[in-house]
Amino acid sequence: MDPSTVTAFGLVFCISCLLLISAWRNALGRGKLPPGPVPLPIIGNMLQLDTKNIPKTLCMAMKEALTDHGEEFAGRGSFPIIDAINKGLGLAFSSGERWKQMRRFSLMTLKNFGMGKKSIEERVQEEAKYLVEALKTTNGMPCDPTFILGCAPCNVICSIIFQKRFEYHDQKFLHLMELLDEKVKILSSPWAQIYNLFPALVQYLPGSHHKLFKNCQMLHNFILGRVKEHQEALDSNNPKDLIDSFLLKMEQEKKKPQSEFTMENLLYTVSDIFGAGTATTSTTLRYGLLLFLKHPEITDKIREEIDRVIGQNRSPCLKDRNSMPYTDAVIHEIQRYIDLVPANLTHSVTRDTKFRQYLIPKGTTIIPLLTSVLYDKEEFPNPDQFDPGHFLDESGNFKKSDYFMPFSTGKRICVGEGLARMELFLFFTTILQNFTLKSPIDPKDIDTAPVASGFGKIPPSFKLCFLPSQNM
After folding, report:
1. Is the pLDDT assigned to residue 9 strictly greater than 60?
2. d(CA 122, CA 118)
3. Whole-prediction pTM value?
């Protein structure tokens, strides 16, 4: 072997040893961390992770950490590709006092404008009717339901944020749907996971992250346009929506030093609620319809329950859920089975924390793996099978489970959980009340495996026919 090659190998070996020793020394100085795979120099644990399906490689005690130690685990951990966009602002990706104030404001304002009240239920019921009319225009022909299903939950959120709904054929509205859909796909791609591992390097390379940043800027420009309209028509005695409420809060705190109610936080808070309230619900609806096609016997049982409890002469309402245990169980099973955001959003500990026999230092990033709970084999026998029986007792009554946490749990639980659960029940039952679903291919040939599983799981593209119910 050439002497220079030997020297180079020796140099690399020495540097690697020094880096490894340094990493171990740092670990010793950072508390007694839970056991895990030994990181390699420079690349850390990258080779030990499946970047296409990271949740399979990670697991932790979710409920104990996020609920019993809720305050300590309430920080938001590093998520480089999102940090490059949000810069720690807004609701979903902020921490500390900023997060507390944005969350408190968001919860209060969402409640003020109907969340948890009859008024928001009526709004969802109205949107469900618009959804039915839009689906009728497909004339029973095979169609991709992605954007139609996105429009319905997005309009519910828009009514709270902007006091406005959009027509389903509005081109600007459809463009927003495309931007949100593409955002989720890019965040769930292997490239996004690589960016999160090497942000300082990858940000300068060509790749889909540039498309993501551009799309997010277009979304922000749309929101800014709405904010300017609100500023011009603001009535301090009659706030009409979330933006009005935030603008009034900004006015109240304009003389307060370092107030968190700034134009930047308004932009990112609205963006967080707008995106999360649209993407997660619409993807769950789409995945649910795919599972209905795959399991027509389950769909038939839901329709039987709809006919018995609701009939065809009125719209479904939320109180019907108490009389429809099978439908309720199916919707819960959809959310469990699809495991939409498998690795949750990263958390961090807000102070040095004793967790079981370990000491986790302040600032440590935590990945609360929802998969480890939603696919727990003791709680859900045969978790890889889609089975509504996971949420039914022996008498066919709905059975609650402490392991059902698709919205996360603890201090960081999704602020829109109640609204999302209402939407899923009302949209699913309204669709099945008005249409028979038909797949262009044999149900046995339908593949429900996600096409990507990074930030979120992306269902495969599919088409279906919405055939008007014969007994309407």
Report:
1. no
2. 6
3. 0.87
